[in-house]
Amino acid sequence: MLVAVLVAVLGVGAFLLWGRGHADRFDSINRMLHGQSPFNPSAVKSQTYDGVPTVGTFITQQTDGWRGRSCNATVVPSPQHNLVVTAAHCLASYDGAHGMRFVPMWHDGKEPYGSFPLIPGRTWAPTDYIRGRSGYTKERWDLDAVFIQVGRNAKGQNVQDAVGGADPIDFSAPPSNDTVMIGYPARLKYPLHCEAKSSPAFEKYQQIACNGYTGGTSGAPWFTDWNAKTDTGRLIGVLGGYMRGGTSNDLEYGTRFTPELEKLYHDAQYNVPQKSVPGLGTGAEWSKARSIDTGDFFGGRRERSDDLLARYADGSVRIYAGNREKPYGWGGGIRPGVTVQTANRTWAQAKDVTVGDFGGRGNHNDVLLLTRDGRLLVYRNVTAAHGLGRPVQLQGPNRTWAQARAMTAGAFGTSGPSHAMDQLVVVGPDGSVTQYTGIGTRNGAAALHTGVPLAGPSAKWAAVKDLTTAEVTANGSAKKHIGQGVMAAFRNGEIDMYRGTDVLTPDAVLATPGREKSHLRSLAGGTWIGLAPGGHIRDDVAMLWDNGALVMHQNSNLRGFVREFQLVAPAKPDF
């Protein structure tokens, strides 16, 4: 009854914070309900120590100076020696997964084996668990586990080689075992070690009574047949599952490794792509896409979600409707696409595309195409039903424009869909950045005013890969939005967010440089997966990768990219 009251007062979001991934959230709700941490007199006293090489924690370093540590993971055997396992809710609720690093045997601030960054798109989580989290189906808490491939450390080592081994998984162990649990509470400098008897709980789970496992311990491994001399055992589960591990500091629940999760482990070991959302195509098809952009091409500006325009290597163009029927559903970002243009030489050789309001009269967006010879063509009032139509030329062939690096349109500094997106930010060949305002067509005549310099030549901007317009918030709340701004992806994998058109200093570095992240091909800010508080805010970000993977991040903020939903599985695991 008390839980029901809490949900009614604080909303579902508060209820979902009952896991152990984040210490402050967990502890605050415990105090709210109990006035102090619940006490279980039969709980085994846990001991602090330096830890074991195969078990570690996740550390995040954000550009605003915030450094966090949460959740635990364990190195498990794989042919590529780069696989760890943790609780699925650790990633599903994490803000800024691209900044996460796995640090084995972390203690007292030390990283004896270095750190291993998470590889974008290399996570294997149960489909039923992911769908259930967003209300698409009933949530399968018993499948609260995820396998993650991590990159190499600074020495170029894979994690299994660096720590000298991995812990085998037992997918057929009974729920009652002599169990060792190792976990990292977020507020301690050392991990905890507990030996106790595990037992069945609520049919599908297991439970153990160990004290001290407060917030931050989600994903802590459960071992049986533990050898204290070699610090090895068989992995039978992780802290998570029921109530994401429980609501008490001294009674923990765990996800059991069952045959249902064994198939997922095999897929992660051998890079078997996870399934794509039905109807969106394959990774092989999306690997031929050259860019993605956001616009309103179906139901008009008052619809609840945006649509996605994809340009392919042969010049064909497809538009994918925003999924307004299930805006909160897993994979609910877009629906199957409609071809609005078949193969076309001009589009195949295009330098860049952006979407905005360039003089078209109607309730839909216009599309601006920059051709290889420097022409600017406007396709007005584009709809899925009528296609691109015949373009109006804003500018004839131009050598300078032909060398432009990237461009994006927006109503910079404003919020919501009511403002005309008729400003254009363009990056020149030398890295200089220029803004054009009021561009478009008026009464059939071209209108391209003289640009205003925003930044002089720079090596950084000369290496820009793609631009988009987004409206990420300061902390995920619409009350602290910063208005539309420029989001820039660079060749080294860095992604920056700029307030409005102030491109001299980023408001935040959303993704730091990295080899894997350098394979991001295109990105687009919009509203797809759920509505941000306050309405139509472009704080979801779609990302297209070189291997054909298409993912969306929901409600991103200045600390990083939030929940990642895979819409299209990659054609191959590597880039």
TrEMBL record:
Biological process annotations from GO: proteolysis
Coiled-coil ranges (or none): none
Gene Ontology MF term list: serine-type endopeptidase activity
InterPro entries xrefs: Peptidase_S1_PA, Peptidase_S1_PA_chymotrypsin, TRYPSIN_HIS
The protein's name in its UniProt record: Peptidase S1 domain-containing protein
Lineage: Bacteria, Bacillati, Actinomycetota, Actinomycetes, Kitasatosporales
